[in-house]
């Protein structure tokens, strides 16, 4: 019985998936996947359909040192270039932060990509002092990813100053971390660049100070050295937390 | 944490756990990578070993798989299907890439070495095998002519090129291509039925 042959591109996709192509043809197919969405879809079709065959291959135990080797390789990579990580589903969820009131899922989205429209703090020199002598300090203790490290933030309303303790962060020489105030329905406002490994005093201008209250959201992002470039989106979020009244 | 749903079978549970670990991985959680490794490394190593036929090479490929997974967690779209299938295909692709780099000679398949872990069969396996898709592809391959089945299976499980396949079976290259292509057309038609 003769079957009509499949279209050429589809044959190629199946041949790629089966592993029939030699090194050069395989590489070409890879290139085609990147440039031709229909071809990439064909490849995905055959991969999905044939994947169950792999269930027939018996498992085998790799050497016990393989996991250690993987970890060592990751450590080396981390030094070279901290991976920028995102996942589609998480990103979609994070996009909804603006309309969400609570940001309750903050812990779940740590390190996910967050496109914050950047609005610059006009700078520490632009503020007249305003005394709100009776206000209590606000504090936030923000966990950094899944590490035991925390970013400590203390806001002193009467001095319109923020103390940021970033002893948990280390400088990688390529990135800075920037702290943002997030208020519902508005662009995030920069509170300034955080100095890794140090406790830093940051002035807060009057307009910003009026928005800082218990429950205010703080987000830490990773940025190029010097902080986010004005007019561009902020970098990936690495941590977030809320300011709360200090218990003294 | 709530009690596990008693109606979930092991395969469902393993799938859900793996899915969760994949999502955590995407947020930069090394612990998640370790959980994924524990749940899937035996399965993926079996695949690498089958393709590469050499323990050392297969271990290098396996390392490569998890390091790439860590770096490219974003490439896994949770809406595209079961993570174990995705990982199995990913591992197989890396192993075939390695084969093509010429570092190892194909055909030296030590299937006996991959004879399995008797008492700790990973749940990942059950997940791979449980789907309707699995039954479908097995059925459809079974409808092919003997020589078509042989060529397609050999390519899939050993990463054999057309040229190697033609040599192994002692037929001209053009003949082998024609067997495979007609087999693929028939396979596709059956899969679509």
TrEMBL record, chain A:
Domain of life: Bacteria
Family annotation (Pfam families): RskA_C
Residues spanning the membrane: 99-118
Gene Ontology cellular component annotations, sorted alphabetically: plasma membrane
GO biological process, one term: regulation of translation
Any one GO MF annotation of this record: sigma factor antagonist activity
Domain called Anti-sigma K factor RskA C-terminal: residue spans: 103-231
Name of the molecule in the record: Anti-sigma K factor RskA C-terminal domain-containing protein
Automatic annotation (TrEMBL), chain B:
Domain RNA polymerase sigma-70 region: start-end pairs: 37-102
Keywords, comma-separated and alphabetical: Sigma factor, Transcription, Transcription regulation
Pfam family name, one: Sigma70_r4_2
Keyword Transcription regulation: yes
Single GO MF descriptor: DNA binding
CDD domains cross-referenced by the UniProt entry: Sigma70_r4 (cd06171)
Keyword Transcription regulation: yes
GO annotation (BP), single: DNA-templated transcription initiation
Domain RNA polymerase sigma factor 70 region 4 type: 136-187
Family: Belongs to the sigma-70 factor family. ECF subfamily.
The protein's name: Sigma-70 family RNA polymerase sigma factor
UniProt source species: Allopontixanthobacter sediminis
